[in-house]
Each structure stands twice: as C-alpha cells, then as structure tokens.
Design brief:
four-stranded antiparallel sheet, Efflux RND transporter periplasmic adaptor subunit, OB fold (Dihydrolipoamide Acetyltransferase, E2P), 3HB_CusB, Elongation Factor Tu (Ef-tu), domain 3, alpha+beta, six-stranded antiparallel beta barrel, metal ion binding, MFP_Cation_Efflux, 615 residues, 27 strands, Beta-barrel_RND_2, 4 domains
Length: 615
C-alpha cells in the first residue's frame, strides 16, 4: 500500500509538471501566433528589447541567438523562439572588436558554393566611355540662299529639281521685272547726259549716273551686267540670276511662272564638302565633351570610321530630351557621307594614375558604398569595408578613400556575402548597425550557416527556372516594338508605378499579338504571352513583378538570339523572387532594379552585354 501511494504521488507530481509546462508554453506562445499582426510592427516591438539585450550581452560576453529568417530578433536564451515565425534560434558569433564584427569566414565547401571572384584594387590608367547617337547635316556656315532682289515673275527656271549640282556663275533663274526695266532706262539716260551735258552740270550728272548704277546693283545686277546695259544702250525687262558658288540645290521654293516679291528665297545651295555631325549628349555626360575635341564616329552599320572636331555645344538643354546638341565639323569627307544619315560615336575620357575597382564590386545604397575584401588569396575570410567612390570610368569606379592599391576585392558575388551577414544579424549593406530588418526572406536554417551560404550560391544557379532552349535569329521577324513595350514595363516597375505598368503591359501584349511567331519560337511566345488578357486582374505591383520575371525569360532568349538592334544589358539580382534570384534587360548599364524599385534600386550585378543585329 505504501508503494502504491508513492507511485500515485509521483504520477500526480508528473501530471502537475506537464500541465504547468503546457500552461507556461501557451502563455508564452499565444502572442507570437496571432496571425493578424504585422511583422514590421513585431520587429519594432522587439527592437528596443533586442538592442538593450545586445548591448548587455556584448559587455558580458554572453552568447546571443537569432532567427535565421528574421535576424532583427535577438535573445540570450537558447530555448527561446522567434516571436514572428516561431522557429528555433541559431547562435550568433559573439561581438568583440570592430574588425571582428565586420568580418566573416566561410569553410571550403561554402566558399565553393558561393562562386566568388576577386581581383586586386588597381592603380593606374582608366577611361570613361560615352556612347552618342546623332545624324549628319549640312554645315550651316556653307549654306547660300538665292533671293529675289526685286519683285517679278519667274520666266525661266534653269534648275528645276532639288539635288541638282550647279557650278559657280551657272544660270539659275530668269526673272521678268518692270522695276528692273525702269532702272535700266534711268541708267542709260544718266549716262547720255553725263557724256554731252554742259560743263557746270557734269558733277551733278556724274552723281546721278553713280546713283543709277547703285540702284541696279541693289536690284541684283553685277558690275559686268551694268556695264553691258550701258554698252548696249538698251533696257531689258529680264535678268538672269546666277549661282554665286558651286553646290547642291537643297531647297527649291519656286516653279516656272511664279510671281515673287523682293526678298523671297528662291533657292538654297549647300557645299557638299562641308558637313556637320550633330550628336545629342545627356546632361550627365556633358563634362566629357569640350570644344576643340576630336571625335571619331561611324555611319549606320558601316565599318568606316570618320573623325571631326567639336566646334560648338548648344547653349541650352532641350527641355524634352534633356540633352544638348554637339556639332562636329567635317571637312572633305568624300562621297561616303550623306546628310540625314544616322551615326554613332564613342567618346573616351582618359584618366591617368587613378585608383579604381570594378563596378560589380561595389554595393551602393544612396550615398553609401560597401565592398568586400578577401583577406588572403584563396582564403575564406572576408571583411566588409565602407568606401567613398568618385567618377564612373567605363566599367570601373574611381575610389577616393577606403582602399589601397593591391588589396584583393570581391568583384563578383559580393551580394552573397552581404546576404550571409544579414542572416547572422551583423553589419551589412542594408543594415550598417547590424540586426536590422533586411526586407528579404531567407529560407535556410543550418546552425553553422552553411545552408544559408548554399542558398545564396544556388539562387544564381536556379534563376533560370523558366529559361527556354536556345533559339536562332530570324531576319523576317521584327521585334523592335516588342522590346520598346518590355522596357516600358521595366521603367514602370523600377519606378514603383503600378498604373504605368498596367498601361505598358497592355501595350506589351498587343505587340506580342502583332509578331508573326514561328513554331521554333513557340516556347518564347508562351512566356511573353503569360497573363495575356488578365493584366487588369493583377492585384498589385508584387504580382506584376512576378509576371515580369516570366516575360523577362522570353525577352532574354530573344535578345541572346539577336532580335534587338542596339546593345542590351542583362542584369541579375540574387535577392529577387524571395531569394531565388531574377534577371532582366536594360538599354544601358546604369542598373535600376525592377523587382524592388526604390527599396533596393541598385541591388544586382551586370551579367552580360548583348549586342544586337544593328549594334
């Protein structure tokens, strides 16, 4: 009986402990499982608590723990749970010195999965390349306008079509003019009086003769023609207007039989050996262009290179295009250049003795730039460092401070290192103080961090989930308008403008419908047609970005096959699509992220430059 009582007592004690534990668990878990709460609000509720605990833990050397999905939460209790998602916590490396706080080390396997590339910081020569477009025009300084010096009727038109070439002094127009007839009679009469008049009137008669000659000169007659009138002694009511110089007739404003008034422009001649190349230069690139500078350019898709000198830059910026026109003078270019031709130019600004890094190495948020240094060649330890950047010089940035020549910098994959620092709640690009919310969801939970590192590396490998097989260029298909509509969607998404995306998407689908798709392109057609007829049902910009990812896969396939004209740039963001990564196309290499917009506008890397059939 005693034994039975002891057993019953032990059982009762066990039940009390279990019930108590469950009660405590329920009391603890209930607030964290209220799914109506906002995660951002939870982060704010725990921020002060976490910061306070973090400071005390840092001072005491106590081990800290965080959530792999929500590194903003910190706790010193290893048995604690994330109040946002309920996951178990993982240990965080204890903070020490500042250097330890911004360094991270990867094992050999994790380092291989990350697929990083590094190169030394370079001290030396660099250049800035600016690409310009424009067209050829006649040199305005070599244009000659043939005007009517007196009113009358066009009796004969010797040059009756635009494009005719005329020599100097060649007849152009025969003009009937009563006023000219009267002026010639006055000249003949003044000449006769000056020859046989009284001596005391000779000065007056000579003055009258000079006035008559001057009047004819003002009516367009040359001195030779005036002398011929005097010699002939007969007035005529017609005058022949001749070409003052050789050139092409570029404008013809009259036809035979027309009446004209004094000052009317009859014809315009241009010197074909004097041309201008007019280039449109954006505000950001104006510093690279100076008067007197020589610029080399090509015409259309031709291989011939021409050169000319910058003679002027327009005094005002065009309000609509935000450009200024640069005039480049060409002397005796030969017969290969035709006014109106489309032209491209590349201007290089050379800079000597400058410290530079690749553009892909810098993670930029606003005015702040972060790079990652590999501490030892082939080593797995990296250090985050804030740097001050200067000019962009081609595919490199000028470094003003923060680095020294020869330091080994991560040129590809810096985002993956930064993601791991965010997971561990340590200072990173997005969270300079560490422990802040990242704005991304990360789906790994290994206690040693390897799973997170593998996830960052696998995101790059898996970003082509919807990629299609290689396709071939078909010159019979025109895709220009389709690419224009695609870039309109990209512009709307990186600007966070959902209504603009809706309008652009409707245009995109109409251009998809206009393409005469072949059977070989059916996989691409399927991708770019995704969501067709339902764009107005898309609930918000996040869904629009998911749809844009599918469209981008098809457009990238078309671009890689060369269905575009100018060069396009393929960009990649490893953080897009909830950490799975995503690519897109841009018309320039100034990265603007359509998957995050203003939240992370510069997040990503340039993957490739894709020259088109016309580029």
């Amino acid at each position: 009986m005693k034994k039975f009582n002891v057993v019953n007592a032990i059982a009762a004690l066990f039940i009390v402990m279990v019930v108590g534990t469950l009660a405590l668990g329920i009391a603890f878990q209930t607030p964290s499982h209220n799914h109506s709460h906002d995660h951002a609000a939870h982060d704010h509720d725990h921020a002060d608590h976490s910061d306070h605990d973090l400071q005390e833990a840092f001072a005491s050397g106590v081990q800290e723990y965080t959530c792999s999905m929500h590194p903003s939460f910190r706790s010193t209790d290893p048995n604690d749970r994330c109040p946002i998602c309920g996951m178990e916590l993982i240990p965080v490396a204890a903070g020490g010195s500042d250097d330890e706080f911004v360094r991270i080390e990867f094992s050999g396997r994790s380092l291989a999965l990350l697929g990083l590339q590094s190169e030394p910081v370079r001290q030396g020569h660099a250049y800035h390349e600016v690409r310009l477009t424009g067209q050829i025009e006649f040199d305005e300084r070599a244009l000659t306008t043939i005007s009517a010096w007196t009113g009358g009727r066009i009796e004969r038109l010797y040059v009756n079509y635009t494009g005719a070439y005329v020599q100097a002094n060649e007849p152009l127009v025969e003009l009937y003019s009563p006023e000219l007839f009267v002026a010639q009679q006055e000249l003949i009469q003044a000449h006769r009086q000056a020859q046989g008049g009284p001596e005391f009137l000779r000065d007056s008669q000579a003055m009258t003769l000079r006035a008559a000659r001057e009047r004819l000169r003002l009516l367009g007659l040359t001195q030779e023609q005036i002398n011929n009138v005097i010699e002939r002694g007969e007035a005529r009511d017609r005058i022949t207007i001749r070409a003052p110089s050789a050139g092409l007739v570029v404008t013809r404003n009259i036809s035979q039989g027309d009446y004209v008034n004094t000052g009317d422009a009859l014809l315009e001649l241009a010197d074909e050996n004097k041309l201008w190349a007019l280039f449109e230069v954006f505000e950001r690139d104006l510093a690279t262009i100076q008067v007197g500078q020589e610029i080399e350019f090509t015409l259309g898709t031709g291989r011939t290179t021409y050169a000319g000198e910058v003679i002027s830059i327009a005094p005002r910026i065009d309000a609509d295009r935000r450009t200024r026109t640069v005039r480049v003078a060409l002397e005796n270019p030969g017969q290969g250049i035709t006014p109106g031709s489309f032209t491209r130019a590349t201007v290089q600004l050379h800079v000597d003795d400058v410290l530079t890094i690749p553009t892909s190495a810098a993670l930029i948020t606003g005015q702040r730039a972060v790079v990652y240094i590999q501490m030892e060649p082939e080593g797995g330890e990296f250090e985050a460092r804030t740097v001050e950047l200067g000019r962009r010089l081609g595919d490199r940035y000028e470094v003003l401070s923060g680095l020294e020549a020869g330091e080994l910098i991560v040129s590809r994959g810096a985002f993956r290192i930064d993601s791991e620092l965010q997971l561990r709640g340590r200072p990173s690009m997005m969270a300079p103080q560490g422990g802040g919310p990242t704005g991304h969801e990360h789906h790994g939970h290994g206690p040693n961090g390897d799973d997170h590192q593998a996830h960052g590396a696998s995101a790059q490998a898996g970003h082509d989930d919807h990629a299609v097989a290689d396709i071939r260029f078909d010159e019979n298909l025109s895709m220009a308008n389709l690419f224009d509509a695609y870039h309109a969607m990209w512009d709307a998404l990186h600007s966070d403008d959902f209504s603009a995306w809706q309008a652009a998407a409707e245009l995109f689908y109409s251009e998809v419908e206009a393409v005469q798709w072949t059977s070989a392109l059916s996989p691409v057609q399927e991708q770019v047609s995704e969501g067709k007829g339902h764009s107005h049902h898309v609930s918000g910009i996040r869904a629009a970005r998911d749809l844009f990812f599918v469209h981008s896969q098809g457009m990238i396939a078309l671009a890689e096959a060369g269905f575009h004209t100018d060069t396009l740039y393929r960009m990649h963001c490893p953080m897009a699509r909830r950490g799975q990564g995503a690519d897109w196309l841009q018309r320039d290499d100034q990265l603007l992220n359509p998957y995050f917009g203003a939240q992370m506008l510069r997040c990503g890397d340039q993957v490739a430059a894709l020259p088109g059939q016309g580029g």
